[in-house]
Design a protein that fits this description.
The protein has helices at 128-132, 161-164; strands at 3-7, 12-14, 31-34, 42-50, 56-63, 73-80, 91-94, 100-108, 115-122, 141-147, 158-159, 169-174, 180-181, 191-199, 205-212, 220-224, 230-239, 242-249, 256-262, 273-279, 286-289, 300-305, 312-319, 328-344, 350-356, 364-371. It is mostly beta strands and 376 residues long.
Amino acid sequence: MRFNLLFHTSFINLIFSPLVPFVSHKNELKYIFKSGSEGYNTFRIPSIITTDSGVVLAFAEGRKNSSSDSGDIDLVLKRSIDGGKTWGDLIIIRDDSTNVCGNPSPVIDRKTGKIFLLSTWNRGDDTESEIINMTSVDTRRVYVMNSIDEGLSWSKPIEITDKVKKPNWTWYATGPVHGIQIREGSKKGRMIIPCDHIEANTKKYYSHIIYSDDGGSSWNIGGTTPQDQVNECSVAEIGKGKLILNMRNYDRTQMNRKISISNDYGESWGDIYDDKALVEPICQASILRYSFKGYGRNDLLFINPADKNKRLNMTLRLSNDLGRTWTREFLLHEGPSAYSDITKLRNGNIGCLFEAGKNSPYEGIVYREVDVRVIN
């Protein structure tokens, strides 16, 4: 079944009827990062989280001089203290001259409220292909920063590359999407960041996770997928010790998302399989466990550009059985769209942050709130 969204001026209500068409402001895009503004040529790579007090933090890459993945790229942030209705000024979290500071992947330690931001770095004059081919001047490096004031200020970046990246890995990416913290079981409190890497000799793409069991003081490599041809991924907790990894897929014989399950808190992963309901054009996506309450509810959300060939049709999907089936879908933007992330807001609604435009997905990063009272 396909459901559409009726957009209102203050928020979006879900209309659960296939007969309701897009109406009024269907092409209106509420940018919080608009490419070509605030000193940046392009904003890309969104990530979003909500603190326990309700502050919403939207992260992105600010690409200074072009839309390229290389060059002068900063980590930037905007905060909302009213649940996403309004947004504060741009905060530059990290600016390392003309180098690349990117792939923001935030996670909150719910015990302390401290926010950790994992990210990657490389020289601005080293391209991805050069790093993969080991002809670059330097390589991809991994850093962690933290904030104890809900994103207003950040600690200096600390490099953790030698702890979370193996010597035979070349390209490396954190997220780019929110991380999670385990809520139940023997590893309760473990913070997990979904990542990916490329092997030096085989040049195969894999997904993996990194984790911290000591409140963010140290980070370690977790399990890696047994099969390759996957990279950018998102993780969710679906039971005691059980995690689901939802991955970008380079196997074009199957134009859908790839899935792997862990039964040991991410220390190992099962064989990859296809989720035939989740089509994709090779693009990053996000998954979110919506309800916990002693695991009495099984709601899982997923967002991506839902098309087999092109980056368009940004769609939010709902599963009531932790991803085994997807029963409902909500079209957020029918035009060009690409990377995305989602968060549960304090009022129970879903905050959706995604790249979108009328002619190109990279015209800016849009925020929309989705009313999900129907699944509460």
